[in-house]
Amino acid sequence: MGIEVVVEGLTKSFGKQNIWRDVSLTLPAGEVSVMLGPSGTGKTVFLKSLIGLLKPEKGRVLIDGVDMVRSPEKDIYETRKLFGLMFQDGALFGSLSLFDNIAFPLREHTRKKESEIRRIVMERIEVVGLLGAEGKLPGEISGGMRKRAGLARALVLDPQIILCDEPDSGLDPVRTAYLSQLLIDLNAQIDATMLIVTHNLDIAATVPDNMGMLFRRELVTFGPREVLLTSDEPVVSQFLGGRREGPIGMSEEKDAATLAAEADRTTPAASRVIVPQLEPSPGLPPRRAVARRRERVMRMIDALPPAARSAIRETYARDAATATVTAPVAGGGA
Ligand SMILES: Nc1ncnc2c1ncn2[C@@H]1O[C@H](COP(=O)(O)OP(=O)(O)OP(=O)(O)O)[C@@H](O)[C@H]1O
């Protein structure tokens, strides 16, 4: 099972430029989380801080007892091996075949024999649907295939935490839909803790168990997906609605007068429809995170805003109804 990541009071600046401050959240073990936020709000900086590549000046990132900000470098290095990272462009070596790209972390970080490396690499290539393309160079395949190759490479060291930085960038809507399904299937197969940074509203609506948003140097919210999807925060409404009206401007935040003028043109959260979360493809095991998440969310439900509470109850009531309809009748099998 994946490992919980606990972020406490994290603050990061570059010189005098504060990126975000006092960010606290928990990525629950084995669940899928999404971090949204307008461009430049520091989502990539956040991912890099989780793996200890950037050092926030305040706060902690706790993984299995190691603080990725301030523990000794050797502990951070060891803990980093628990991560699988998928970068925006796939970050593949242009002169290596897909096979060699995907095998790279195994050759670099383990002493496995070539026969074992081949077995693992081909298994991961199959998971991401790239069988047959393993001999190609990154320049010979499409952007979507490069992303899937990047994902396969992120998987070879059996990561317990997977970070994906804008996995959808440059993909058309159909490829993005396939990628969303792949992320859910992956979670069903390996039960890793996953954090996906994206601007894509379809991924945000259908993939995660939890969602958060960074804006104006703060974490606006982080919690069960229904909290953000029913939120009345203007920045959330604007982002989910993909509109110009709202606090997010083209290059900078808007002034109060502009915001007041726009206020009555925004869509209320109540009119948003929450679409069901994706299920693993037929033939795959159910996601183990689902039961754990349900238990966790039901423990905290009374502390959630009323709209999120009703959305969660509706979802679970619908799931229960579907389960009753599709459950096999006891003793009725041939
Ligand atoms: N190593 C660095 N040194 C100085 N400033 C940096 C560094 N890395 C990032 N920044 C600054 O931090 C801010 C946030 O960058 P980041 O790439 O994390 O944003 P983002 O939310 O991921 O944006 P996008 O959605 O456009 O990818 C930017 O202003 C960027 O210039």
Task: Describe, in plain words, how this protein is organized in 3D.
The protein has helices at 43-50, 73-80, 98-109, 114-127, 143-155, 173-190, 201-206, 225-229, 234-241, 256-262, 288-300, 306-326, and strands at 5-14, 17-27, 32-36, 58-63, 66-67, 83-86, 161-165, 193-197, 210-215, 218-224. The model is unreliable at 329-334 (pLDDT under 50). It starts with a strand and ends in an 8-residue tail after the last helix. The chain is an alpha/beta fold and 334 residues long. 40% of the residues are buried. The protein contains twelve helices and ten strands. The chain has a six-stranded mixed beta sheet with strand order 6-7-8-3-9-10. The radius of gyration is 21 Å and the shape is globular. The chain binds adenosine-5'-triphosphate. Adenosine-5'-triphosphate (ATP) is lined by residues 14, 19, 37, 39-45.
Write out key terms for the chains shown.
single chain; AAA+_ATPase; 334 residues; six-stranded mixed β-sheet; four-stranded antiparallel β-sheet
Secondary structure blueprint with pairings:
Elements: E1 5-14, E2 17-27, E3 32-36, H1 43-50, E4 58-63, E5 66-67, H2 73-80, E6 83-86, H3 98-109, H4 114-127, H5 143-155, E7 161-165, H6 173-190, E8 193-197, H7 201-206, E9 210-215, E10 218-224, H8 225-229, H9 234-241, H10 256-262, H11 288-300, H12 306-326
Parallel strand pairs: 3-8, 3-9, 6-7, 7-8
Antiparallel strand pairs: 1-2, 1-4, 4-5, 9-10
Helix pairs in contact: 3-4, 3-5, 4-5
The protein binds adenosine-5'-triphosphate (ATP).
Residues 14, 19, 37, 39-45 line the site of adenosine-5'-triphosphate (ATP).
